[in-house]
Every structure is written in C-alpha cells, then in structure tokens.
Amino acid sequence: MLYCQSLQTVAKNRLDLENALRLALTENGFEVYLQPQVESNSGKLVGAEALLRWNRDGHGFVSPQEFIPVAEESGLILPIGEWVMQKAVMHALRLKQRFGRCIPVGVNVSAKQFQAPSFIDIVDQVLSIEGASPDMLEIEITESTFIEDVGKTIEILTDLKARGLQIAIDDFGTGYPSLSYLNKFPVDRLKIDRSFIMNIMDNEEDRILISLVTELGRKLGLNVIAEGVEDDFQENLLIGMGCHAMQGYLFGRPVPFDEFCNMYKSMPAV
User: Fold this and answer.
1) Is 7 inside a domain boundary?
2) Is residue 12 one of the residues assigned to a domain?
3) Does some domain include residue 23?
C-alpha cells in the first residue's frame, strides 16, 4: 500500500510539473539568462550562452535538471526550445544595438529538437527576425545527439553551416566515443565539460584529457572552450594548455540581460 501511494505521489508531482510548464510557456513564466564566454589570453568577451531559468509561482526557481527531463518526455521541449532560440537571437540583437558589435549567443539544442523534421524551418524562422543575422546564433549539441544518426546529423549540420551559423559540441568528453567522426562534422568549437575542469588541480588524468582535446581542436582547426572555470589556478592552467576561451563563475554567473550588460562594461572590449 505504501509503495502504491508513493508511486501515485510521484505521478501526481510529475503531472503537476508538466501542467505548470505548459502554463509557464503560455504566460511568459520563463526567462533566458546569459553567461559570458571570454577569450583566454585577453579576457575579452567573445560570446555568451543562453540558459533557461524558471521561477515557478509558489516554488521559487526550479532546477533545469528537474524540469528539462519532464519537458523532454512530454514533448514540451520543442516549443520551449524554439522560444529559447528566439529569445537568444533577440538578446543578441539588443547586445549589438547596445555595444555596436555582434556577440554570438549559444543555445543548447536537445536531441529531440535537433532530430525534429521542423528544426531547420524553426532556425530559419528565428533568423527572420528583423535585423538578425546567422553569426548571432551558435547551436550547441551533445555528442550523444549526433551519434544516433550520423548521416542525418551531417545533413542537418551542413544545412546550418550553409546558413552561416556556428556549431559547438557541448559537454565534449562525456558522451560516446566520437573522435572518428569529428573530421566529418562541420563544427566550429568543442566545449570541454565542467566535470573535467573541477578536478583539474588534483586529477592528472583530467589534465591530460584537457590537454589532448585542446591539441586535437588546434589540429582540426576547432576552437576549444572550457566550461565551469571557477578560480585563477584553473584559468592559468588552461591558458598554458592553449585553451581558446573559457566560461564559468570566475568570469560571471548566468544573469538576466541587463545584469549581463553591466558585467560586459567591466570587461575588455574586442
């Protein structure tokens, strides 16, 4: 009996969360924060990552680790993902208007979004916003996304590149073995997962891996960005390894647009 009650509670909580997600989507309950990405040697701002935040009525901020899986399972990730992409481009437009240059904004795209038949059309629609240009948007996909159907992935990435978008492989090193595919995919950047960065001081294997990925990126003509950089030791070590760019709390937490602009003012200009 207790087991059945527990299952019923879990099911009810999941349904409540799904319904709250639907309401948030229709009533502007979401917000897109920006986190800066900086050039390693100069500290200059070179981009930003768009991160979805949800301040649920009566519950406060809900962790993406909690609500994204529900959005995936329910199919809500498709309209939510489209909304995030649209907001990211609008933020990029506002950044260009405010600072006079393009600051590309990266958007995480789930496997379900990427493989949807309408994905390219959605990208085209988002980029049709007045004043938008392809160099304002970077598409981030994980290794597991492109391993599922290599042929289709190459086709989609080729279409995106033909439109002038930047492509990044997110959480590189945590998914399926993909080195044999890297030279086949038209990508621009590798993003080293923060799980490797956080142990860089004590774990020699992580240091070796980061060094190898950085060297691999250089030889393939790809930029490498380290995620989750939180202190000067990590920064200096990554600079020594030749990492092109960094992202993490050392340079700024994800913040709303206006706070991001204030943060930008204190950074070196390109």
Assistant:
1) no
2) no
3) no
Domain that holds residue 169: 30-265
Q: How many domains does the chain have?
A: 1
* pLDDT tens profile 153-202: 899 999 999 999 999 999 887 665 556 677 788 999 999 999 889 988 88
Of 125, 124, 110, 118, which is closest to residue 77 (Cα–Cα)?
110
In a domain, 251, yes or no: yes
HEC letters along the chain: CHHHHHHHHHHHHHHHHHHHHHHHHHCCCEEEEEEEEEECCCCCEEEEEEEEEEEECCCEEECHHHHHHHHHHHCCHHHHHHHHHHHHHHHHHHHHHHHCCCCCEEEECCHHHHHCCCHHHHHHHHHCCCCCCHHHEEEEEEHHHHHCCHHHHHHHHHHHHHCCCEEEEEEECCCCCCHHHHCCCCCCEEEECHHHHCCCCCCHHHHHHHHHHHHHHHHHCCEEEECCCCCHHHHHHHHHHCCCEECCCCCCCCECHHHHHHHHHCCCCC
pTM score: 0.91
The CATH number linked to 142 is 3.20.20.450
